[in-house]
Amino acid sequence: MLAHATGITQSLCELAAGPNAKGDSQVPGVKVIDVACDRLLRIADTRLGGFGSAPKFPHLTDLDLLLRRYHSDNDPKKLHVVTCSLDAMADGGIFDHVGGGFVRYSVDAHWLVPHFEKMLYDNALLARLYVDDITPHGNFEERNIPRLKQSIAKFAESRSTDPNSLSKQLIQDMITLREHRDKRIHPGRDDKVLMGWNSLAIEALAAAGAVLNEPRFVEAAEGVATFIWTKMARTGGRFYHALRRGHSHLNAFQDDLADFINAALAVFRATGKARWVDRASKVATQLIEHFEDKHAGGFYYTADDAELVIARQKDWHDGSVRSGNGSAAMGLLELATLTGNRDFVDAAKRTLIAGGEVIKKQSAAAAQLLAALDRFHRSDEQLVIAARSWDEAELLRAAYPLRLSTTCGPILGHRWRA
Fold first, then answer.
1. How far apart are the C-alpha atoms of 133 and 204, rounded to whole Å?
2. Residue 261 CA, distance from chain mean position
3. Residue 222: which of 268, 291, 170 has the closest Cα?
4. Reduced to 3 DSSP states, what percent helix, strand and coil does the chain have, rounded to the nearest 5?
5. Is the distance from CB of 93 to CB of 147 less than 8 angstroms?
6. Which residues of 405-418 are buried (b: 16+ CB within 10 A; e: fewer)?
7. Residue-wise pLDDT tens digits, 22-46
8. Please, what are the domains in the chain?
9. Hey, which residues does 365 pair with through a beta bridge?
10. Dihedral sign (CA 159, 165, 167, 169)
């Protein structure tokens, strides 16, 4: 019986270590990214947007991968799938035109009938992706689901109406609808604060603020990031996973730290404040020290001092959110570019090697890993523009919001704005 239990435990540990635990010693090449993108193009719905048929989920990491590769190869097919999908979702019933925000998915192929549940992580990832680039009889159970079947400009033209006047009227109508809706009993809201999901929101807000020149978005992003750094910190500089009603609990998981690294770097790019690079570096050091598999590479979902389990799992696959290992590899590579710290590059490289079999054989569920792999192979692409003053640097960053990280002084000297 003991031998049987030992065998089961060993098998579970090998399964948890990942399919490439004893495999290749090299990072996969760029070709696997192109193969994965070709597959996405084959299954894309180029007429209605998205992938496959009903029910339709946003598939955000897949769209992000296609957009990322479009910036490398200028393939119009990739851009079409992304823009078609984003337009269809924004115009459809999956988007709440009255109250704002997206629901989890559409139960039909036309993005019309929504699954009536909104998640922070969906809206954060969708917002980040958008930054980078009513019938007479009703259309659902005899009721209307607001959507835009055509642009306001085209509708105004068909009715010989001034589009500006139509837009103003539409805004007023939406306010009226919102006031009427607010009289109903609202759905329950999960009010706990999760480190990882909030980090996704921070990243989206910071990027949106930089691109749209909206200081309030940047302020909100930095405010939430500061809240996590101060209110969700444990003794010794570690973090909690969740907070509710002022009480933090559960030790942070691997994706919490990985997502916060990306969030902190997004805040840095939007503000130029060096403290966020320093904080990202401290979290990255924690990630490597307490979560990395020192033998096979990649990161476990739980820390080395967490509650004992039979087998520590590794998160390789995208689900509703980005995979923990994919997010970690991306953040470490971005951080290494800013700091020159080879430890971060090496940890990311070990992760990509460990995830090699997943990347090659299970690419349909590994878009974030593929995006990190793409970032690894293009890590030497940097543009440095010297500005004579902070004001001049701000003008440059405003012109190239997603491409420049505004700094004061030499990067290697860490003489950034405090």
1. 13
2. 12
3. 268
4. 55, 5, 40
5. yes
6. bbbeeebeeeebee
7. 556 899 999 999 999 999 999 999 9
8. 25-149 (no CATH), 193-381 (1.50.10.20)
9. none
10. negative
